[in-house]
Q: What sequence folds into this?
């Protein structure tokens, strides 16, 4: 009874510590990266257009529809004040990271003990990419949470099965496990990269190989089937988009892996913290020496698969977030084993233990100087400039001609949406290929597909004017080529976002005579 009370107290203290680590730093009035702006822009459009989960602006809807369904629950709260959407999405991520304490603690405690479970939770908080992403809205955090809820339920099912639990209880747990894994995919389909943890969990429970394969296959197949069945019920979006295979080749093709090997590896190490990676490989060596193959098979495959998969598409380094829990668990296993070996040689174990812990934490914080920061660390000046430009565009007197805006457009358009619910946004496709597509087409040698990535625009209308936004306005050469090769926008007023070093485009760069608006 006392042991159970101590465990509950430990979990409560970890929840409090996690709350202190995330909530004071959660973004209050801005998304944390460009994808976040895209998601909020789509959420607003789904409300103003009356198309819940049906707006063509919902970024990645087909792979994250569970996330948008969750946000839509709060529609009565934010439909009259869209500015509330941003803190809602941000705090959902922070709360999800806080609740991660429970499944991580239970799972790690079952296989490696309570001390390792405490260490794993502490180390997870300190992983740069995990902590940073926990501060703003993104469905990857919830996908990881549901993944580990499912794994913890597998561990719990195995525990009660050994105590002859009833069949009904086991069936209910099976349903909950499949639901958790299904929700994991609904929040982010690429979370399937963590599904190697499912057979890893059964191996840790020492199931026979036949049962590991059969049980894992059933859980995975049911989760995938449920994902696609629910997806088939979503409203249709009439928007041309590439298939999964085309996207995989474009973003994750072998040519890009070779090209981005150095830069991608650097981003991976910085996202995870160099010291974590170093200790993780020491852990792998230690487990190999000890012949602990079960632990190796749990923590190693997921890290390798995610590293290889995201290597060609490493930016933002938030893509590597799925390795965070296994990285924390691997480091915790080694550090606990190291502490157990060192402490017996010290007379005052408490003082030595505290000293070692402080030194370790100090080293972690020092190593952060060469680690990952938030994807776009210029928010203070950038947000002010975006708001100023959005306000000026919104208040611009009526013009007969369209106004073509070259800017970091997604945040600016979102600010216009927040200023007025009457702002209408529509995606536009062009026939011109992006610079990135042209480069891939030129240098790809292993896998070649028909070029599909074209320059995307946004048509934005308010009560006074019709705007055309060039989404990736920071690509100077591409913008210049666009105006050179396209005649559709020769009759526009041109607006170029100022005060951002990366926007070096000036009106004289455009070969055509276009009216320039100085805003």
A:
């Amino acid at each position: 009874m006392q042991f159970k009370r101590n465990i509950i107290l430990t979990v409560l203290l970890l929840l409090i510590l996690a709350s202190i680590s995330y909530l004071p730093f959660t973004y209050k009035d801005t998304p944390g990266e460009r994808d976040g702006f895209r998601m909020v822009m789509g959420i607003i459009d789904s409300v103003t257009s009356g198309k819940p989960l049906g707006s063509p602006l919902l970024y990645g809807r087909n792979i994250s529809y569970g996330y948008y369904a969750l946000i839509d629950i709060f529609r009565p709260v934010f439909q009259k004040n869209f500015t509330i959407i941003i803190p809602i999405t941000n705090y959902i991520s922070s709360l999800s990271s806080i609740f991660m304490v429970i499944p991580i603690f239970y799972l790690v405690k079952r296989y490696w003990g309570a001390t390792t479970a405490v260490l794993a939770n502490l180390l997870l908080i300190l992983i740069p990419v995990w902590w940073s992403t926990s501060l703003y809205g993104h469905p990857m955090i919830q996908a990881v949470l549901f993944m580990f809820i499912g794994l913890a339920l597998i561990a719990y099912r195995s525990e009660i099965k050994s105590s002859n639990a009833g069949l009904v209880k086991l069936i209910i747990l099976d349903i909950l496990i499949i639901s958790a894994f299904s929700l994991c995919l609904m929040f982010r389909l690429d979370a399937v990269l963590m599904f190697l943890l499912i057979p890893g969990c059964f191996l840790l429970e020492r199931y026979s190989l036949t049962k590991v394969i059969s049980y894992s296959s059933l859980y995975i197949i049911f989760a995938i089937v449920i994902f696609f069945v629910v997806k088939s019920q979503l409203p249709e979006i009439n928007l041309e988009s590439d298939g999964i295979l085309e996207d995989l080749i474009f973003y994750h093709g072998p040519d890009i892996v070779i090209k981005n090997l150095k830069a991608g590896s650097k981003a991976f190490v910085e996202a995870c913290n160099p010291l974590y990676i170093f200790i993780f490989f020491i852990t792998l060596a230690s487990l190999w020496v000890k012949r602990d193959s079960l632990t190796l098979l749990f923590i190693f495959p997921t890290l390798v698969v995610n590293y290889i998969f995201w290597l060609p598409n490493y930016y933002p380094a938030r893509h590597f977030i799925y390795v965070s829990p296994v990285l924390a668990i691997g480091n915790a296993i080694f550090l606990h084993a190291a502490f157990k070996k060192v402490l017996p040689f010290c007379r005052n174990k408490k003082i030595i233990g505290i000293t070692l812990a402080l030194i370790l934490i100090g080293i972690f914080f020092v190593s952060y100087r060469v680690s990952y920061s938030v994807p776009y660390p210029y928010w203070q000046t950038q947000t002010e400039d975006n708001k100023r430009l959005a306000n000026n565009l919104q208040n611009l007197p009526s013009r007969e001609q369209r106004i073509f805006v070259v800017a970091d457009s997604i945040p600016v358009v979102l600010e216009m949406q927040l200023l007025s619910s009457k702002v209408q946004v529509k995606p536009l496709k062009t026939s011109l290929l992006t610079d990135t597509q042209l480069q891939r087409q030129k240098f790809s040698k292993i896998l070649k597909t028909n070029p599909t990535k074209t320059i995307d625009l946004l048509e934005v209308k308010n009560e006074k004017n019709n705007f055309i936004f060039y989404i990736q306005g920071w690509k100077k050469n591409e913008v210049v080529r666009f105006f050179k090769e396209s005649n559709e926008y020769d009759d526009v007023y041109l607006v170029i976002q100022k005060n951002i070093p990366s926007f070096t485009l000036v009106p004289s760069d455009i070969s055509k005579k276009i009216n320039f608006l100085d805003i």
